[in-house]
């Protein structure tokens, strides 16, 4: 694909994350995160106003407790009443979409950044982003890790500390490393 490294990143193609244009974006996000995380002692409405500066789609009643960390912010879509507890990390080199009423525990990590499996390509420093989609009314327990490309269906539960390596069906409860559907 022709175009800027940011264009390639947004298209899900291999790109150079060290490109100057992306370094400018990362620095802008880091400056915003410093302000956001410094507001920890402020009321939630201050957090929401700050969140809207960087996150283009932050629904009504969203609460993201600082400290919070992401790469860019512009690749996040947070539905109404989404809740992220303290110390969440979202590597948003691709779109991360979180549906209405989803609850995410502390220290959850969501990754879209992926690296080539071919060692020669990986050595070149290229990477790509693979979107993550989390449905409505999902509960993700503290310390869970969601890997690139995963979709989690509506009403699912992800147990604390789980590593989610593949899609989770709607209504399913998964736990473990790797996360597996539990028999109720």
UniProtKB/TrEMBL annotation:
GO MF term list: acetyltransferase activity; O-acyltransferase activity
Xref: CDD domains: LbH_MAT_GAT
InterPro entries, per the entry: Hexapep (IPR001451), Hexapep_transf_CS (IPR018357), Hexapeptide_acetyltransf (IPR051159), Mac_dom (IPR024688), Trimer_LpxA-like_sf (IPR011004)
Cellular component annotations (GO), alphabetically ordered: cytosol
Entry keywords, A to Z: Acyltransferase, Nodulation, Repeat, Transferase
Top-level taxon of origin: Bacteria
Pfam families: Hexapep (PF00132), Mac (PF12464)
Residue ranges annotated for the Maltose/galactoside acetyltransferase domain, each copy included: 6-60
Function text: Acetyltransferase implicated in the O-acetylation of Nod factors.
Assigned protein family: Belongs to the transferase hexapeptide repeat family.
Name of protein: Nodulation protein L
Native source species: Massilia litorea
Lineage: Bacteria, Pseudomonadati, Pseudomonadota, Betaproteobacteria, Burkholderiales
């Amino acid at each position: 694909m022709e175009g800027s490294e940011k264009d390639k990143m947004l298209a899900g193609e291999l790109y150079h994350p060290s490109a100057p244009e992306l370094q400018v974006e990362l620095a802008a996000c880091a400056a915003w995160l410093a302000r956001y995380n410094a507001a920890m002692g402020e009321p939630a409405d201050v957090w929401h106003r700050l969140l809207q500066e960087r996150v283009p789609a932050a629904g009504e009643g969203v609460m993201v407790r600082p400290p919070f960390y992401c790469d860019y912010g512009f690749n996040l879509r947070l539905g109404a009443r989404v809740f992220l507890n303290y110390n969440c990390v979202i590597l948003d080199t691709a779109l991360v979409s979180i549906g209405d009423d989803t609850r995410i525990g502390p220290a959850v990590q969501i990754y879209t950044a992926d690296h080539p499996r071919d060692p020669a390509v990986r050595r070149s420093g290229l990477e790509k982003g693979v979107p993550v989609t989390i449905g409505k009314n999902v509960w993700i327990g503290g310390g869970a890790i969601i890997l690139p490309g995963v979709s989690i269906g509506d009403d699912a539960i992800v147990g604390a500390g789980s590593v989610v390596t593949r899609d989770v069906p709607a209504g399913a409860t998964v736990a473990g490393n790797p996360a597996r559907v539990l028999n109720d």
